[in-house]
User: Which sequence fits this backbone?
RNA sequence: GGGGAGAUUCCAGAGCGGUCAAAUGGGGCAGACUGUAAAUCUGUUGGCUUAUGCCUUCGAUGGUUCAAAUCCAUCUCUCCCCA
């Protein structure tokens, strides 16, 4: 693989990157002409990768395409500890079985973005299972409390009197040690990873290595337009989402996020994105661009055919107010031929309790065959099939 | 090791013997409006065969009382100050 010229590489590398520590070191590393070892760590704390994760994954892919060596660290060990970054409370300690379960699905999802060929996948349990306590102490001796408190999350928690354990403070050290073990030249991460990445630089230096360069991508804002995209806040778009859901979720983002999403989640040319920005500012309906964005994202992560489908689905559902019941087919799966609304909704996992169901009905959010149901005591009969139902805005389907 | 403060429903945070399923705000959900945007407004937000009824909930366990989130004891956890 022949590497591109340095300035051409830099142009690609720097797209969507908000900070480099340091650019000068990066250039020097590129000048060596050798493929660089580019590290990205992901902790399998949940089963699903969402678009927030893909920002850095995309960047890693770009390095692969440039001929560098991608090293994906699966933090099966660090996942148990949990990254305390940005957290105001201790994360529940994940058990090994859960983590292992997450690992396999993570890998499958990561391959949607990464090139399998030029990729090393390593688990940090490989070294953390073996590390001696002596070595751990040695690592700890490199850091002072004051250094740790430079970490904003730690300082904040400390100052506000919120519990902060030593275990959590070990996290940056562990992540840094990963870089030492795999001899990373570059580490990718969101800006929130700065402290952890810099800890890696620090440790590498202590171990007599040239420090890695930190390359930071912005944090993708979630669907609520306020917080970072995360599973726990339920403001995410999953990489395994159904095409129509992915499309729909993109359509539901606040307008202010459109440009950010274009920049971080699509391969659309930077100049083109600037044009879009200008047009929106000139009063063009942002919805049109949002549709384009949604189409692009679905195409990229799922496929063109699915994107077409999702687009049509959206058009029908929301623009023409025709609810596509037929896309969600159900068969009569109840124990009896007659069920109450509460049982119906509980079985479909739309509500969790009878009270919940009652509320939904009382508030006018339940429809059968497009007729609002006011009577909570109404019985749904198998003989009514086929019929359509709708509960709130997001849940609907047809029984046939 | 010593002293002090605290643990409340999804979150923050009131309540400090009955009127407490527990104020208020945030979040969630539903409705109106709309571009499944934002903003706004309204309702709702423990559970139960809807009942001015019952059950479970205010860190845990025991106790006092006709009655406890509220008082007492012990325990667990957290924060602060001093060593």
Assistant:
């Amino acid at each position: 693989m022949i590497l591109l010229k340095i300035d051409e590489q830099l142009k690609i590398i720097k797209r969507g990157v908000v900070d480099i520590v340091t650019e000068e070191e990066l250039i020097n590393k590129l000048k060596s002409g050798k493929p660089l070892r580019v590290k990205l760590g992901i902790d399998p704390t949940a089963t699903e990768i969402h678009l927030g994760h893909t920002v850095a994954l995309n960047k890693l892919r770009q390095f692969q395409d440039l001929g560098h060596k991608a090293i994906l660290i699966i933090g099966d060990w660090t996942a148990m500890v949990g990254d305390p970054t940005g957290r105001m409370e201790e994360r529940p300690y994940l058990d090994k079985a859960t983590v292992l379960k997450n690992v396999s699905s993570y890998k499958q999802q990561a391959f949607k973005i990464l090139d399998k060929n030029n990729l090393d996948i390593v688990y940090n349990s490989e070294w953390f299972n073996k590390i001696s306590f002596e070595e751990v102490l040695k690592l700890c001796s490199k850091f002072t409390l004051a250094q740790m408190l430079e970490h904003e999350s730690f300082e904040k928690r400390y100052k506000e009197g919120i519990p902060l354990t030593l275990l959590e403070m070990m996290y940056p050290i562990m992540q840094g040690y990963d870089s030492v073990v795999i001899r990373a030249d570059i580490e990718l991460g969101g800006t929130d990873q700065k402290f952890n990445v810099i800890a890696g630089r620090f440790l590498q230096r202590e171990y007599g290595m040239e420090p890695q360069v930190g390359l930071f991508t912005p944090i993708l804002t979630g669907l609520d337009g306020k917080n970072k995209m995360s599973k726990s806040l339920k403001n995410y778009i999953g990489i395994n989402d159904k095409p129509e859901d992915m499309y729909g979720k993109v359509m539901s983002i606040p307008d202010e996020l459109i440009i950010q999403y274009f920049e971080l989640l699509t391969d659309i040319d930077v100049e083109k994105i600037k044009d879009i920005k200008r047009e929106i500012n000139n009063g063009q309906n942002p919805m049109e661009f949002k549709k384009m964005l949604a189409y692009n994202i679905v195409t990229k992560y799922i496929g063109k055919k699915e994107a077409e489908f999702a687009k049509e689905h959206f058009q029908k559902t929301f623009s023409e107010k025709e609810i596509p019941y037929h896309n969600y087919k159900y068969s009569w799966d109840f124990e009896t031929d007659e069920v109450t609304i509460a049982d119906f909704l509980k079985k479909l996992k739309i509500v969790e309790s009878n009270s919940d169901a009652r509320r939904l009905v009382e508030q006018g959010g339940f429809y059968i065959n497009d007729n609002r149901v006011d009577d909570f005591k109404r019985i749904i009969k198998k003989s009514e099939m086929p019929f359509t139902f709708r509960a709130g805005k997001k849940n609907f389907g047809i029984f046939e």
In short: Residues 160-163, 224-225, 234, 248-249, 251-258, 285-288, 290, 314, 317-319, 340, 342, 351, 353-356, 358-360, 362-366, 376, 392-394 of chain A lie near RNA strand B (CB under 10 Å from a C1'). The CA atoms of residues 199 and 298 of chain A lie 36 Å apart. Chain A has a mean pLDDT of 85. The two ends of chain A are 56 Å apart (CA to CA).
